[in-house]
Specification:
Layout: H1 11-16, H2 19-44, H3 51-55, E1 57-60, E2 69-72, H4 78-85, H5 87-94, H6 96-115
Antiparallel strand pairs: 1-2
């Protein structure tokens, strides 16, 4: 899944897209997506001891302008469980509606930053 931000045709608006204005809304968006997909994946994870479910986490790009979120587990057998059960893929599918709402919220946050909060 990827998010692509493009500004076509409005040079003035494109010039106002300062990375300082975009960084916080993008970090908020990626954090919300990571938490939501992780929580939905945890609901899809089969539990025997709880170790795998407890290890499932998300990490947002620590750079100034975040461009990715990683969702996964550090448990050695997690890739095999994902191949068998698809808990992360199904967690992402379960999150589609939420991700759309989060993207709209990020769009509003960016618009507010561009207009000075009005």
């Amino acid at each position: 899944m990827s998010l692509d931000i493009r500004v076509d045709g409005d040079d003035e608006l494109a010039a106002r897209l300062d990375p300082k204005l975009l960084a916080k809304p993008l970090r908020n968006l990626l954090t919300r997506v990571g938490i939501t997909v992780t929580n939905n994946a945890k609901r899809r994870t089969r539990v025997k001891t709880g170790r795998l479910r407890a290890s499932e986490t998300s990490e947002v790009d620590p750079g100034f302008m975040p461009i990715w979120v990683k969702i996964g587990s550090n448990v050695l057998y997690a890739p095999y469980r994902e191949a068998f059960d698809g808990m992360f893929a199904r967690g992402l599918d379960d999150s589609a509606g939420d991700i759309g709402r989060f993207a709209l919220r990020a769009e509003d946050e960016i618009a507010q930053a561009l207009t000075g909060g009005t």
